Amino acid sequence: MGRYIIRRLIQAIPVLLGATLFIFAIVFALPGDPVAALAGEKRQDPAIVAIIRDQYHLNDPLLLQYWHYISGLLFEGDLGKTFAGVPVSQLLAGKLQVTLNLALVALVMEAVIGVLLGLWAALRRGRATDTGILASTLLLISVPTLVTGFVLQLWLGVWLKQVTGTEIFPIAGATQGLKSYLLPGFVLAGTSIAYLTRLTRTSLVETLRSDYIRTATAKGLSRRRVIGRHGLRNALIPLVTYLGADLGALMGGAVITETIFNLPGIGNQLYQGVYLREQPIVVGIVTILVLVYILANLIVDMLYAVLDPRIRYE
Amino acid sequence: MRKTSPDVLPAEGGLGNEPLLALEDLHVEFGTRAGIVRAVNGVSYTLDSGETLAVLGESGSGKSVTAQAIMGILDMPPARIPKGEIRFRGTDLLKLSEEARTQVRGQRIAMIFQDALSALNPVFTVGWQISEMFRVHRGMSKRDGMAKAVELMDKVRIPAARQRLNDYPHQFSGGMRQRIMIAMAIALDPEVLIADEPTTALDVTVQAQIMELLAELQRESNMGMILITHDLGVVADVADKIAVMYGGRIVENALVHDIYKAPAHPYTKGLLESIPRVDLKGQELYAIKGLPPNLLDMPPGCAFHPRCPYRQDNCVTDVPPLYEISGTRNSACHYWREVLDGDNR
After folding, report:
1. Chain B residues touching residue A233 (CB < 8 angstroms)
2. How far is CA A118 from CA A135, A231, B287, in A?
3. Are residues A233 and A111 part of one domain?
4. Of A61, A268, B133, B228, which one has the fewest beta carbons inside 10 Å?
5. ipTM surpassing 0.90, yes or no?
6. Does the pLDDT of residue A171 top 50, yes or no?
7. Which of A214, A234, A310 shows the shortest C-beta gap to B73?
């Protein structure tokens, strides 16, 4: 197992280099001049412009610029500085936490609600409950996050507060601890909940048709034990893969949700970074996202071996 | 399926001279989109303690469905039991509540399945799966259950049982896996053991070992055994009596030596003749012509008539009853005398 982990981590290096170079090139190719954008409408002193361009290696060719960046990152752990001179690591520190919180709240909601709904549907297969759950997941999948976000913000955030007189779901900011993340977390998790519900249902229905489920019944076990122990344990395996891969997707999807709920996370920052052509910010955030993806996938693969003894990595 | 009659669990010792297990005119059907599939059409047989009944028949003859009906592990719906009784020590299992049924299942009537690899749960160790019987049904601790599991694995002769306790099913060979399946089934000393094609997935030498093991376990515990198979070769050594099924009905039942001496139903005769024989090496292997009946659309009269060399006009119109040939023998063929006389067609 140890060897496998090391091999996987080594494999992560080319992925990380490729992803950062790709993003670097895209931001490089964006039209407009980041230094000119610094001063807005005002005229700039050509001498100062020249100093800034030199300082940030903006006159170098793409690959050389990339080398300056990546060598700083690899050898000094330096994510670079914004054009305003603020270190990117310092800029992102608190924001990464906000996004991570949001993604984790969404992931937990997804896992709990998705698995429970899927389980319920599977056990009532072909009946009204099942059809109802499937229909509502379809609805959840087809409505964009922008719509669910604003609608829930209005209903649960504004109207519910007017009706009850207390603020149950804060509609903006991350100042009230877990409470602030509930509504945005649900909005972010929305489509994922729907997909996981369907995946759980299919997986469990499939599992309950297996021979070993028949054996468990023939052993004289209660239906609860047959489904809860023998069925669920096997049905969970594909769900773990989906959940793991989804953590990365949730962090990426946070851009829209953070904007709707005005959460000071890296999604918001990424949007501004792209807008201002702040290469170090954009590449820094993408690097972090790629790292999260790689780690999440590694953890999924480890969990897989724990959940399914037939899989061994050596 | 909820039944309202009082739940009286079958008495331990049995009542009077009731057989251990008696099937009476059992019908099982499946509701499908294409129509009603009548898988079992009035099957009756009895089994006593210490006795082995071989149920013989090709795929789709209803032999496994009958066994699953006895175990109560059919999916209902789509399956239905519109008619019939399954009396276990005098108590009709079909009239018991689901809870009472669960008490019988696994503890008093146990079952071994065909493919042990898919029939064992892949994510639990074999020790865990065997000891589950003791933990759930006998309230034992994990440690005591595991000790029992080792005993059972020794009993079914799995080498180095203690070391293999924490292995998973996929780490065993096919024969060893079937032994684990057997250990799990006999864990609580059941009175009836149903073995559904226990050796089909195994190679020939291992088949013999497994059959020997089953016969030995049965002698020790005096349980009644139902051996479901399509392999006549397996049957001869271990069975006391044979029930041959075709199209959801029993077409012949007899003591094992009678049937090998002279079959009384054309289908049984065909089965016996299709066994490869060393003295006929080089000759073409006999096969029963035609296909098994379509259970959605059974032929009228005798279900075997389209394939039968003894067919007469009334076979197409009249369903043959189970004619009594002797006290221990029946045949569902209008012309059993001709078949029995060895009148070759």
Report:
1. 121, 123-124
2. 12, 13, 49
3. yes
4. A61
5. no
6. yes
7. A214
